[in-house]
Structures
1.
Amino acid sequence: MKTPIQFRLNGEEVATFVEGGANLLDTLRESVGDLSVKGGCWQGTCGTCTVLIDGVPRLSCVTLAETCAGHSVETVAGLRRGADLHPLQSAFMERFAAQCGYCTPGMLMAAKALLDKNPNPTRENVVDAICGNICRCTGYEPIINAVLDAARSDSRRRA
Amino acid sequence: MTINVKTFPRLADAASALSQERGARFLAGGTLVMRAVNEADPSIETIVRSTDPSFVNISVSSGRVELGAGVTMAAILAERELSFLHPVARAVGGPAVREAATVGGNLFAPSPYGDFAAALLALDATVMLAGGVGQRELPLDEFLSRRDRGAVLVSSVAFKRPASDAFRFVKVTRVHPKGISVLSISAQLPTASGRVSGARIAYGAMGPAPVRAKAAERALEGRTLDSAGVAPALAVAHDGTAPHDDAIASAWWRREILPIHLRRLLLGEHPPRHS
């Protein structure tokens, strides 16, 4: 039996039906059509499926979709600010923080959760924020530098 | 196979459903149950949930701490009164896992997970079980020894707040800052006139479930926390342990490094990143 659920996705109300036991990751990709969120392990281990639920990072693969009813979900598809890229997206490009790109949506959302809460993070804060996200290409340093760059550029913009 | 999802406003009703329904599993944060669902575990036919506010309640009063089983690691990190538990909560996964992983779920986490449960064991916690006909309290040691027998719903855990600086924790991992345990050690080391009185030590990943180091506790009684004082405890550090081989470490390696890290913990020599 399918259950109807409604939630806010990147600022817009969406409604869909979910099978019992469906996770949020599959629901976003297969029912709602948001392909920006990626699945890696479906075990809550790799972090590539990270989305924000009510502003905090959550692993969509181990989140029961039904529990998101009435809540706000953010994916990397909603990261742009109008016609402009989010400072994190620009910094990831400038710092070559994406190689194969598979971890990038999760990395960006984990980093956004950090910057939304702490606009001026230390390097240690950044390392902790992305420590649940696995990247097999970059060695992490370009990603850490990109997040720090994005924080600095956003601070300058706000000043 | 489609899974039934049943949500109950009261924990007691959720507990009844859990005990009555065939193939029912209780879902808290999802890090264990949803993983099994994603792997199409055929034993799961029904997911039981509860929205009972008491399930996520934190209470700290008169030296006693009570944590609803649905309290997350992130909620513990946000609670200043629980600062002694912050190193333990921070050791559970990355930020996204900590927003989901619960106190109650950690009690069921198979080795090498379950570092928070080991900390609760060192804190002499009791577990409150919810049932359709009322609640039942039992020591965590006893609960852990039979946690795999039958469907039970933990509603909360409670323990006496440790004396200032009496609680210590170390998690040994290969990856920093987030890694799965090679082992973890939690210790409550109250002292009277500079000598240990009533120590409780628990290990994570040194057996199928968190385990007390009872021989080491006895050997510490009345001793000072210096090299000579802790030596007898280190000699019996392995008593009661049954570590296993896994992708993180071999049982041999776990046994080799246990006394080294226990020594450092007891002497307060662990570097900050570990504690």
Note: Chain B touches chain A at residues 2-5, 7, 27, 30-31, 34-35, 37-39, 44, 47, 49, 74, 93-97, 99-100, 177-178 (CB under 8 Å).
2.
Amino acid sequence: MSNIEEFRLETRQWLETHCPASLRTPMSEREVVWGGRNATFPSADAQRWLQAMGERGWTAPTWPRSYGGGGLTAEQNAVLQEELRRIKARPALYSFGLWMFGPVLLEFGNEEQKQRFLPPIVRGETRWCQGYSEPGAGSDLASLATRCEDHGDHFLINGQKIWTSYANLADWMFCLVRTDTRTKHGGISFLVFDMRTAGVETRPIRLISGDSPFCETFLTDVRVPKDQLIGPLNGGWEIAKRLLMHERTNISAEAFGNAAGLDLIETARQFVGLREGVLANTDLRARIARHRMRDEAFRLAVQQARTGHGRSSSAATSALASSFKVAAASLNQERCELLLECLGHEGLGWEGEGFSTDALRATRHWLRSKGNSIEGGTTEINLNVIAKRVLGLPDPV
Amino acid sequence: MSMTADQQMLEDTARQFFAERSPPGAVRANRTAGRSFDPTLWQQIGELGFSGALIPESHGGSGIGYRGLGLVLEAAGRTLCASPLLQSSFIGAAAVLRHGSAAQQANLLPRIAAGELTLALAVDETPHHHPENTRTVARHVDGGWVLNGRKRFVADGDSASLLLTLARIDTAGAESDALRWFLVPSTTAGVTRQRLHTVDGEGFADIEFAAVDLGADAALGTASPASWQDVLDVACIALASTMQGAAEAALALTLDHLKTRTQFGQLIGSFQSLQHRVARLHVDLQLARAAVTGALDELDARGHVTADPRLHRLASLCKALCGDALHNVSNETVQLHGGIGMTDVHDSGLFLKRARVLETLYGTSSHHRDRYARLAGI
């Protein structure tokens, strides 16, 4: 038996023992485990599952063992993911630390910082949030203006961040600040701080879809110890870009697709009805088919990218990230629009009696999906990135 | 399954070979010479081992597999290369390999691998692809079959030595629902073919079967309801690989133009409205590529034919997605080139013409979206 087949058997046995039966079922948004100092768990099983996965390092399967990760090769990780999918295991942990901050810290952090920050991320003990966008710096992120001054033994930060997901629930923030006002990209630094630091204040943002995880974060005379600067002073833009790449890959691969809820085809059959065995409205049928086909191809693309299919280099991954983001956003928006169309009047409820819970959720998802082509780099910015970096087209004059 | 070092090398070899030996302009040379492909080129393709790529070494091939040959087809598609590679080395070889009897395999596969025997799929009888409406009839008689009917728009039909023909079974005067593939040597008495001059200059033909006497061994393999569809699924996947290559090459041609053409004192590729158009085409091509790769892997993963509808779905998926991508790219290639794109000296038109032919063959994108929808219960 080959090593990888042995690994598969061991993994299968371990999962059989450690993944509680109650966690082998579809998960609603409310049941997501985000970890952190004030972690909440939907069940004792969910807590045990995170603990088991965290101890084994399998929340971060490919991170080195020395930082608490699983130390798996890409091939082993592919097997692990297959085995997790096979038993329909819920993810033990959702975490910006795992998806965004950890990968760049591995690349740009010093040894002490890795030892300090990575293991608690793996175990789900620290919940991170992202301080990137500002009211005046959206698509043009590098124009960010949050001031960071050198005060000898510490930095002092003043400014405002926006679209900080779950800032009100996070323990730490990784944050882009301006350390030099004379140059644009070369005057940005990347640092981290505890959200309990004096001068950090958060306020949730209400969206067109209602309550949201987004927050505004106000930073007033926030003192940050100097050993919490990641990478060199004024060297934050490189890190910021790399992290955006992880974010884009992740957003496209996970977040949009997981907005479960109503099945499009089932809903179409039920609400629109059938004629001679196919959907009665042939125009809608054609549009649903077109959508489903692009969706299946996209899933294949993500799966192939994960298993290092085809030309697997980091350059290829980076080139794919923007394409994936553009595709994922439009596919999810399309799905939400089609679902709403299938629901007809049933899809127009805001809240209360007279509408099913599923329909109300679909309506909120539809409204929320409008943000998919804005958050994590707008579709337009991603098309710019593809044109310039992948297709090699010249900069606009 | 990731691309192996062997497959990477194969792709590099294939791309280099077709780019040097058969650039898109060769289409004009064939047109001038009045031939549908260059026989010397076909011989060289055979020497590289491409014509026997699907065929196991025990039958004289190189056993590279579907993904491997898919990469070769894609490379050939990039330069619009005309040769029996698609019809014979991929579709024909796969049909014999997947459905042929042991005797048929032993007889045919070594000659297909050597490139001395070429196959072509004879399916359609009307302007649209409706294989289930096949009217060509194979009547069971003592010691064999008698074939009657007419096939239209047969790709490589003018040159292939063996016509893999779809026919309805007629036993004792009663036509059945059963469809089956027949191996018909094109020189058999009663077979007449009429060359068609299609926009892309490839070797299409109409073929008439008038009381064609065939031996008992002319029927491919044993009768099974799954096999007639399986061959067409494989054909769609092979076409999709070709279309993927053509679409990527047309986009590359267009990008070259955007990077060199100056108007208003700047490269037109610096205009954001044009950048976004080609970037969207690139995204579509990524999805199309994933669909083709997924389908080729599915063929490699299953050595034998199963009744699993997954292959039907993947075949329609990649045929439609590559067809749509090629359709859009070929239109944009003409538009973004401007006036020069409308001229016969420029390659844009060659891509546009080949695009429509490939899109239409074995079902348009619309046909396959409809089929996919039915399979998905929509």
Note: The radius of gyration of chain A is 22 Å.
